[in-house]
Amino acid sequence: MGSMDYDNDKKPREQQIRKSRTMLLLLVLTNAASILIFSGAGAALHAHVRRHYPAVVHAWGSAKLLRELNVTGLALAASHAEVVDLSERLTAANKVMETILGGKAAKHDMEAAREEQREAAAGGLWQRDRDQDLGGELKLAVGPHRLPHRRLMIGGAGGGGGGDAVMFPALGQACHRYRDELERYMNYTVGGECPSDEVSTQRLMLKGCEPLPRRRCRPPTPAGYVEPTPLPESLWAIPPDTSIVWDAYTCKSYGCLVNRGKAKGSYDCKDCFDLRGREKGRWVRRPGEKADDERNSLDYTIDGVLGLLPKGSVRIGLDIGGGSGTFAARMRERGVTVVTTSMNFNGPFNSFIASRGLVPMHLSVASRLPFFDGTLDVVHSMHVLSSWIPDAMLESALFDVYRVLRPGGVFWLDHFFCLGTQLDATYLPMFDRIGFKKLRWHAGRKLDRGIHMDEWYISALLQKPRR
C-alpha cells in the first residue's frame, strides 16, 4: 500500500474529527450563553425589583401601584424558578451530548489508529521507499485482505479481535528483511508449476522467514511415480527413487544416501538413511541387555521409558529434529503416533519420513510448536535442542515444550550437548525455571574429542506436574 494513498485516506478522517469537535464547542458556548442570559440577568432583575419595590407597600402608597408591583414581583419570582429549571436541563443535555460526541470521537480515533497500524504493517514495513509499492504475488502474500462477510467473523477472527474486517496471511517476522529473495520465491506462473527452489526456500526459513507465504502454483511431480509400500513393511523399507524430485540434493538416489555414511565428508545425520545399519538399533535394547542396565546410562530405550509411565498413557507425541523418523517408527510399532519435525539438509528427510508411513513436519527449531496447550503425551528431542541455540531462544523453546505437554506428560531430553562450565551455571538453573519434575537425570562426558574439551551430554526424563 503506497504512502500517497495512505496520506489521502488520512485527510478525510482528520477533517471529520475537526468538524465534530467544532460542533461540540459551538453547542457548549450557545448553551452557556443562554444560561447566563436567563439565569444571571433574570436573577439580577428580580433582585432589583425586590430592592426598589418591596412586596409590602406602605398604606400611604397608591393602591393601584401596590397591586401592580405585587403582581410583577410574583411573576418575576416564577420566571426565575423556570430559568433555574431550564438551566439544570440544559446542563444535563450538555453532559449527554458531550458523552455521545466524545464517545464517537474516541471510537473514530481508535479506528483511525488501527487503520494506520494496518497500513503501516502492510506498507511501511515492506516498502523500500515511499514511491514503490509491493506488486504481484508478493502483495497478495503480505495482505491485508478484507473479509467478504463481516457478520460471519467468529470471535474477532479478522486479525484484530475487535471486529476488524481484514485478515493478514501468516508470515514470518524476518521475511521483510529479505525482500529480494522473497520476491524471487514469489516469482512464478499462477496456476503453473512451481520453480525448483527448495534450497533457497529452506534458506529463507532458516533466516527467520517462517512460515513462508503460500504460493498459487503446483510443485513438480516426479516422473514414473509409484505407490508407496504399505504399513508395516514401509517402516523399514527404502522407497523407490521415483518417489521424489532430486534437483535440490547432491545425491540423486536413495542408494547414494544409504552409502553416504561410509563416504568422506560431513553431512547432517550422515547415516540416517541406512535403515539396516545404526538406525536399526536406536532406542531398543541390545540382545542380552536388561532394564537395569540403562538406569545409569545416557542411552534410554523406548521400552524402558514407557515402563516408567502408566500403561497405555502414551498415545501421541512429537519428535523435534527427528532425522529420518526412526524414533517415530519405533513408537509406531508400540501403538504410539509421533509427529517428526525435520529439515531437508542436503537430503529428502521429510519425503523419506512420509515414505515410511509416518507424519513429517517441515519446521525449524525457531518456530512455535503448532500444537494446542496440554495435548501431547510425550515430546522427544535428540541432539537438536542443545547449547548451539542462544540461551533466550532455547529457554523459550523449552517453555514451549512444557506448554504442549499434558499434565503428567513427559519430555525426553536425549543427549543434550553442552560444556561443563555451562552445565551448572546456565542449564541446570534454566531447567529448574521451566518447572519440570525430574524422573530421570544423567550427565556424562563426551569423550570422542578428548577429556580436555570438557564436553558433556545430558539425558533426562522430565515430567510436567499434574497440579
UniProtKB/TrEMBL annotation:
Membrane-spanning parts: 21-45
The Methyltransferase type domain, residue ranges: 318-412
InterPro entries per record: Methyltransf_11, Prob_Methyltransferase, SAM-dependent_MTases_sf
CDD domains: AdoMet_MTases
Entry-linked SUPFAM superfamilies: S-adenosyl-L-methionine-dependent methyltransferases
Domain of life: Eukaryota
Protein name (record): Methyltransferase type 11 domain-containing protein
Taxonomic source organism: Miscanthus lutarioriparius
